Amino acid sequence: MNFVRRFSPQIIIAIMVIVQIFEILAVILSDSRILALVYLFLLNVIITSILLLQTKNYQLRRQDFIRKINDEAENSLNATLDNMPIGVIRYNKESLEPEWFNPFIDMVFKGNEKILGKEDIQAILKKKADEQYIQIGDQKFVINLDDEKTLIYLIDATKEVAFRSDFNDSRAVIGSISVDNYDDATDLITDSERTVVNNFIASSLENFATKYAFYLRRISSSRYFFLCDYRILDKMISDKFSVLNDFKTSSAEKKIPLTLSIGVSYGWNDFPTIGKTAMNNLELAQVRGGDQVVLRENTEQARPTYFGGNSESRTQKSRTRARAISTALRTIISEADDIFIVGHRFTDMDALGAAIAMKVFANISGKEAFVVYDPEQLLPDVGRAIDKMNKSSDGFTHIIRLETARRIKKANSLLIMVDHSKTSQTLNLDFYKSFEKVVVIDHHRRDDDFPEQALLSYIESSASSASELTVELLQFHDTNARKMSNIEASIALAGIEMDTKNFTKATTSRTFEAAAYLRSRGADNDLIKIIMATDFEKYKKVNEIVLNSKIIFGNIALGVGATNQKYDNITTAKAADTLLDMAGVTASFAITNHTNGFVSVSARSRNGFNVQTLMEQMGGGGHFNNAATQIYERTEEQVKEELIKVLKARFEINE
Ligand SMILES: Nc1ncnc2c1ncn2[C@@H]1O[C@H](COP(=O)(O)O[C@H]2[C@@H](O)[C@H](n3cnc4c(N)ncnc43)O[C@@H]2COP(=O)(O)O)[C@@H](O)[C@H]1O
Ligand SMILES: [Mn+2]
């Protein structure tokens, strides 16, 4: 009864009064009832007609009204599209040509003296796929996409981005600086010379602080810390922490062999944990060989970024640390039921030699110890060494297979990881995970994939080999309780020989001391030669890679295996070793298809060329001049291209 609402109450009362009057008149004036009924009928017809007319008028007026509202809405939508600070673009799905856009888009693009074109649509769609803002002129826009209607909405986010960047820039940064090699460099000098060194360090670091305007504080002659915000850290990152090089160069000019290790962390609030992360980063920078910055945000999932690392590790002259580690290790071993020792995957001679030295160490402490190997990952020379051990007169040699180790391991057993510190490189990840107590002894630069709960870690990247490190620990623990057998000493010496390429690389006086100790324990050169002998067919395969090599960038040798052939680690490693022996070669790389389905790269270098960081960029690692990587789902050719790209970036060659 909508139409009734159109009459006001006064009109309805007036109509009803009139009707009432007419009805009274009709009854009074009519001579008969029939006539009265006729009058009343006519009256009803008139009233009904009035009401019907009223309804029709109302409906017509209502349609006009709706039409008017629609017109107004459309006008204001157009006005909004024309005036709102949001860009709308419709594009052709196939050609990506723009079909229509609102005046705002016209204004943004014209303001930048551009006409919206297909390439702009492509750029917008790409940015959207990368979940990024698009920058047009000085403005930044968030992109919203309606795929179905091929509509792009660009929402101005310039202020939001600026605000966010201001916000991020104000994150707190804590840095911890340590001068590498300070103790050794100042050990034997006079007090006045030491003052010169201290002044040099202080003034260099003050210059660093003034250049970037951060707060620097000295803790001791070789330790400093600094505070700043992310805006300042960002500048240091852009300069790739040039302070490392500046410091190294000017200290070399002054004939002071010093470098810096810096640990930096940043984040929101929680300053104690930012500081703690910075300290952990500093430790990581030092064990990776120093002369570098390790930067990691103070969040669980953040990964470290490395800068520098362009110096080879300096030998720690002092053996105090080795003695302290030897003592700490003795305590840990004495608290365990028994000891299991593992090397890395495809355990090599150095890992086996180190494991055997650790087995003897545990035996001297009165504990039963087992060297674990995996027959599925057995290198020929390691296989020969294990055979020799098993045939020796020592009886049960305690060199056991992985499956046996799994069976006999106890809840309170200790795992010693030798010659590796990355959990991803351990002989068997599940076996590693089954231990609550872990010790790590390694000569590789430490990486982030480090065992979380290591009770003790002894990482000395300046040592030639893991065998050298463990033999040194053993020397501090040598008693008459249990002596190394001839075969054990031979295998440990074979480990040192393998990693030093027969004492031609990475040796220090400590390497020769360890070797001399092993000789005194009966290490036998003939036996070592038999164990380390090269298989004739393997030798031919090494040559296959060497013959298929060329010199790139003037002094880099790059050898590639035959595409239809598969090679094992050692063949690839030996090819890289051989290539490095060529005259004028500073670094060598061998790329092959590995028997296990990935593409393998072995990298070797000399003269201060860091191949570790190169291999890290390609997902691998290793040491400063002996590194490698394994790459899945790529061809040899693709890996070669990637390596060349990484080398170009190293040499700052633009494509
Ligand atoms: N993914 C990785 N992450 C971190 N570090 C890695 C990774 N992959 C390899 N590495 C480390 O890189 C170096 C070099 O490895 P490589 O395979 O090129 O060479 C090693 C052995 O294959 C090789 N080797 C073993 N036996 C012999 C032998 N009889 N003659 C010649 N060469 C041999 O020597 C390298 C052993 O190096 P070590 O383990 O550091 O002692 C290496 O450090 C990997 O751990
Ligand atoms: Mn090894």
From TrEMBL:
Q: Which residues form the DDH domain?
A: 339-496
Indicate what this protein is called per its UniProt record. Answer: Cyclic-di-AMP phosphodiesterase
Q: Which family does it belong to?
A: Belongs to the GdpP/PdeA phosphodiesterase family.
Topology in the lipid bilayer: Multi-pass membrane protein
**Is Glycoprotein included in the keywords of this UniProt record?**
no
Q: Start and end of every DHHA1 domain?
A: 564-651
Give the transmembrane ranges: 7-28, 34-53
Keywords per UniProt:
Cell membrane, Hydrolase, Membrane, Transmembrane, Transmembrane helix
- Cyclic-di-AMP phosphodiesterase GdpP-like PAS domain boundaries: 80-156
Q: What Pfam families does its record include?
A: DHH, DHHA1, GGDEF_GdpP, PAS_GdpP
